[in-house]
Amino acid sequence: MKIQIRYFASLRETLGAQEALDMPAGSTLGALRDVLIGRSPRHAEVLARGRAVRCALAQRMCDEGTALADGAEVAFFPPVTGG
Amino acid sequence: MTERVSVRQADFDLSAEVAALRAGDGGVGAVVAFVGTVREHSAGQLVSRMELEHYPGMTEAAIETMIDAAQQRFDIRAIRVVHRIGVLQPADQIVLVAVTSAHRGQAFQACEFLMDYLKTQAPFWKKEGNAEGSHWVDARSSDDAALQRWGLDSGNAA
Predict the structure, then answer these.
(1) At CB < 8 Å, which residues of chain A contact B?
(2) How far is B125 from chain A (nearest CA, A)?
(3) pLDDT (0 to 100) of residue B120
(4) Using an 8 Å Cβ cutoff, are B97 and B62 in contact?
(5) How far is it, in rounded angstroms, from Cα B64 to Cα B45?
């Protein structure tokens, strides 16, 4: 499955605004995060388990158990601070 | 009827927004509006510049969802949310939440509910800067606690 990944705020500054990745069918958002963590030391640092990273699937807040579908838009970002 | 949500760089005029929100609605007996502004100090540091980033598309959709939730929860007539993005200066306006209702109680509550929701669930990020540098603002667990008062879990800052 082709997955589009977007980053915002501090994650964007480290990893760039977006990238794309192929994932096996049936993968979850958490599995995607694990694959990304293995991509580079910079990915490993900012996406590390235990760091406050929030995620969205199809522009909705989601948890990491959520299953991905082909063509999905996933985003990773720090806790939000608007208002 | 005005759009319920506007996310943009441009400033807003509170009087004009409120006038538009209640125009033609004789059932309105209360208007509550909250305006958030840029503080010149944050955690003891001088702030000379604030930059607001957002997730285009998701931001608007998230706020629309919050407004739907507020409409279901409270007896209100109309809601308008304006949130600015881009580079702002101290004292600039950041956000407007305006609510109309027949009586004040529901309008006060809906306005606070929307701000608590927006603080923890709308994808905006603030970066504060001064002559020494800039840093991303940390989320506050007190904002999660504020949302919990309404029976909603956030887990944003946690």
Answers:
(1) 6, 8-10, 12, 52, 54, 56, 59-61, 75, 77-83
(2) 5
(3) 95
(4) no
(5) 34
How far apart are the C-alpha atoms of A56 and A77, rounded to whole Å?
Answer: 9
The DSSP 8-state label assigned to residue B150 in this structure reads: T
What are the tokens at A14?
A: 């480290």
> B1: pLDDT confidence band, cut at 50, 70 and 90?
low
Task: Summarize pLDDT for B6-26 with one digit per residue, the tens.
Answer: 999 999 999 999 999 999 999
Question: DSSP state, A78?
Answer: P
Which residue from A minimizes the CA distance to B36?
A: A83
Helical H segments across B7-103, by residue range = 14-22, 58-73
**Contact criterion met (CB < 8 Å) for A59 and B52:** no
Q: Which residues contact A71 (CB under 8 A, 6 or more apart)?
A: A1, A2, A3, A4
Q: What is chain B's mean pLDDT, rounded?
A: 96
Instruction: Identify the closest residue of chain B to A83 by CA–CA distance.
Output: B119
DSSP H helical segments within B41-80, as ranges? 58-73
* pLDDT above 80 for B158: no
CB contact under 8 A, B123 and A82: yes
Strand B41-42 and strand B45-46: the pairing is: antiparallel
Alpha carbon of B137: minimum distance to chain A alpha carbons (Å): 7
Contact B126 A60 (CB under 8 A): no
Contact between chains at A75 and B115 (C-beta distance less than 8 A): no
Eight-state DSSP code of residue A51: S
**What is the pTM (predicted TM-score) of this model?**
0.95
In the predicted structure, residue B155 carries a pLDDT above the cut 90: no
Q: What is the dihedral of CA A32, A34, A40, A43, to 10 degrees?
A: 80
